[in-house]
Design goal:
mainly alpha, cell membrane (chains A, B, C), transmembrane helix (chains A, B, C), homotrimer
Chain lengths: 222, 222, 222
Amino acid sequence: MRVEGFLFEQLLMITPVMILELAGVAVFALSGALVAARLGQTLVTVCFFALVTGVGGGSLRDILLGTQAEWLSDPWVSAVILASALLVWFTPERWWRGQLLEWADAAGLSAFAALGTAKALEFGVAPIPAVVLGVASGCVGGIIRDVLAGQPSILMRPELYVTAAALTSILALAALATDLPRLPALLIASAAGFALRGAALVWSIELPSYGNKKAGRDGPPS
Amino acid sequence: MRVEGFLFEQLLMITPVMILELAGVAVFALSGALVAARLGQTLVTVCFFALVTGVGGGSLRDILLGTQAEWLSDPWVSAVILASALLVWFTPERWWRGQLLEWADAAGLSAFAALGTAKALEFGVAPIPAVVLGVASGCVGGIIRDVLAGQPSILMRPELYVTAAALTSILALAALATDLPRLPALLIASAAGFALRGAALVWSIELPSYGNKKAGRDGPPS
Amino acid sequence: MRVEGFLFEQLLMITPVMILELAGVAVFALSGALVAARLGQTLVTVCFFALVTGVGGGSLRDILLGTQAEWLSDPWVSAVILASALLVWFTPERWWRGQLLEWADAAGLSAFAALGTAKALEFGVAPIPAVVLGVASGCVGGIIRDVLAGQPSILMRPELYVTAAALTSILALAALATDLPRLPALLIASAAGFALRGAALVWSIELPSYGNKKAGRDGPPS
C-alpha cells in the first residue's frame, strides 16, 4: 500500500500519529495497572490489567474490521505497557492520587477516538459505523478494566465521557472529509474532545438520566 | 462473488433476508435500550446498550469467522439502532412493560440463529460449529447486555431460551442441506424456534437443572 | 502452505500436537461444565460453559491474529466439548471433587500457552506480543468462565497461575528460536510451566501482592 518514493514524507507524517497512539496506550495502561494495584493484586495481575486497558479498545476496533490487532506487529506497544505496569508496581500508590490521571485519560480517550475513526474510514467503513468504532476504540479498554475489576464502569455514570469520544469521532469524520491533511485533522478533533472531557472534569458536567429527565420526578430510578 | 447478470434475482431473494436481519437488530436494540433506561442511565449509555445488544451476536459470529463485522459496511444497521435508542428515550417506560418485547425478542432470537448458521455454512464451517455459531448469533447480544448491566443473564435461568435458538440452528442446517431455496429454509427454521420460545413464554417451560435432575433432591441448589 | 511430498512427515509431526490441543480443550470444557453444574444450571447452560471455557482462549488468540477461529473448521473440537458437558451432566458432582481437575487444568494451561505462542510466531507476530498471546490462549477461557458465573477469577487470586503460562510461553519462544523441532520444543516448554503450576498447587506458592509487598503493612488491602 505504500509507494517507496513517498517513504520520507510518510515518515514525517506518521511519526506524530504513532507518538499520539503510544501516549494513549501508556495512559490507559497506567490506569489499568492502578486499578489492579488498588485491589491489592500481584505484579502479574497488574501487568494483565495494564495490557487489557491499554490495547482493549484498539483490539476491538481491529477485530471488528477483520484485521490483525495492531499491537501484535508493533514491538513498542507491549514494551510501553510493561513499563507502565512496572512503574505503578514500584511506586507508592499515593503518588497517583488526584486528577492527574483523569486528565491523562482524557487525552488518551480523545486520541484513540480520532485514530479509531480514521482507521475505520481507511478500511472502507460507512460513516456512522466509523464514528461508532472511534468511540469504541476510546472507551472499551476502560470498560473491560472495570468489568474485570467488578467496579461500576464509567459507562454507567452520568458524567460526560462517551460523549467526549463521540464529539471527537464526529469531528474527525468531518475533518477527514475535507482536504485537511491527516495529522492536523486528527489533532483538531482530539483537542475538541479533550476540551469537552476537561470541562466535564472541572465543572462536573453530567448528562440528564432517563428517570430524571421528566420534570417533577424525584427519587432514584429503580 | 456476485455475477452481474443475476443482480435482479439476487435482489429479489436477498431483500426479505435483509428485512429479517434489520428487524432482529431493531428488537434487540430496543431490549438493550430498555435495560439501560430502567437503570436510569443517560441517552449516551442507552445508545451504547442498544448498539451492543443489537450487533453483539452478529459481531461475535463475524469475528470468529475472521471477517469484517457486517454492520460496519451496512449504513442501515447503525441508523436502526440509533432510532431504537431514541424511541425508548422519548417514550415513557410504562409503554414497554408486559410481554410484547419478550415476543419480539423471540422473533429476533430465531431470525439471528437461522441467519448465523447460514452465514457460517457459507464460510465453510463444519456442521456442529455452524450450529454453535447460529446459537451464539442469537443469544450473545443479550448476554453481553446483561453482564454489562450487572444482571443475571437469561443463560443462568432455567427457562427455555438457548434451546429455542439451538432448535432453529439445527433445522436451518438440515433445511439448507436439502434442495430448498435459502429464504424458505431459513423461515421454516426460524418459525420452529419462535414457536418453541413462544411455548416457553406461555407455559413457563423450564429445563431441568443439574441439582434437581436427581429424584428426591429438594431445595435450591447452592 | 503444505508441500504434498511432506504429507506423511507432517502427519507424524502434527498428530501429537493435535492430541495435545484436544486434551487441553477437553480439560477446560470439563472445568467449565462443572462450574455450571455446581451453580445448578440446565444442560444447555452446562454445554455453553463447556464451550466458552474450552475454546475461549484459542478463539481470542485467533481473532486477534485476524484469522478464523480454529475450532470452526475442526469437527473434533465441538464433539469433544459436547462429550465433556454430557460427561459432567450424567455423573454425580462428588466424582469431580478434589484436585484431579486442578492438575488437568494445569496441563491444559501449559499446553495452550505453548501452542498459542507457536501459532502467533507463525503469523509473524513480534516476540513480546507472541508471549502475551500464548498467555492469553492459556488463561482467557477460565477468566470468561468465571466472569460469566459471577465468581472471582483466578486472575484476582495471588496463587501462581498466569505466571506458569508466562514461563511456558517464554520458554516456547526461546526453544522455537533454536534449531529444535517444533514438537519437542513445545513439550519442554509445557512441561516447565506444568511443573511450576504443580509446585504452586502442592506448596500453595503465592506471588506478593501490591498492598503487602511493603514491609510493616498489615491487614487486607482495601
